[in-house]
Amino acid sequence: MKKIKIIFLSLVIGTGAIMLIEGCAATQAIADKSGAALWGENCIRCHNTPSPADFSDAQWETIGMHMRLRASLTKDETSKIVAFLQTGN
Ligand code: HEC
To answer: By alpha-carbon position, which residue is closest to atom 24 of ligand 1?
Structure first.
């Protein structure tokens, strides 16, 4: 009986540890993505990806705020995408 409890406990702890490590790895992978990659993956979900040359820098700031809400992006992701789009004009 005691042995079963120990096996069960170590399974629970082991799974928890793996989930913790995997969770951090996924967050880090997203944090490492460039603005161009985030733009390509996110903006295509609802409409064609607008080209950097389509709007002025000031317009991209506003569009960034607007699409941040639509696409549920983090502040960091949004500023990377906006910075990428602003280099194109
Ligand atoms: C969840 C869906 C969704 C995602 C994801 C999305 N958009 Fe949009 N986008 C819309 C909709 C809907 C409109 C039409 C205007 C409105 O009603 O918001 C729009 C309009 C636009 C426009 C027209 C100008 C404006 O602000 O209305 C631009 C430019 C644009 N999106 C850029 C982007 C970029 C860049 C991204 C990626 C960061 C993005 N969108 C991601 C839904 C989305």
So the answer is: 63
Task: Give the list of residues 6+ apart from residue 86 with CB closer than 8 angstroms, or none.
Answer: 52, 57, 60
Two tokens at 29? 């992978």
What's the 67 CA to ligand 1 centre distance in angstroms?
Answer: 5
Q: What is the pLDDT of residues 15-70, one digit of tens each?
A: 656 555 566 565 666 678 999 999 999 999 999 999 999 999 999 999 999 999 99
Cα 2 to Cα 15, 53, 77, 79: the distances in Å are 20, 68, 49, 54
Q: How far apart are the first and last CA of the chain?
A: 70
85: Cα separation from own chain's centroid = 17
Spell out which residues line ligand 1, taking CB within 6 angstroms. 42-43, 45-47, 50, 63, 66-67, 70-71, 81
C-alpha to C-alpha distance for 88 and 57, rounded to whole angstroms: 9
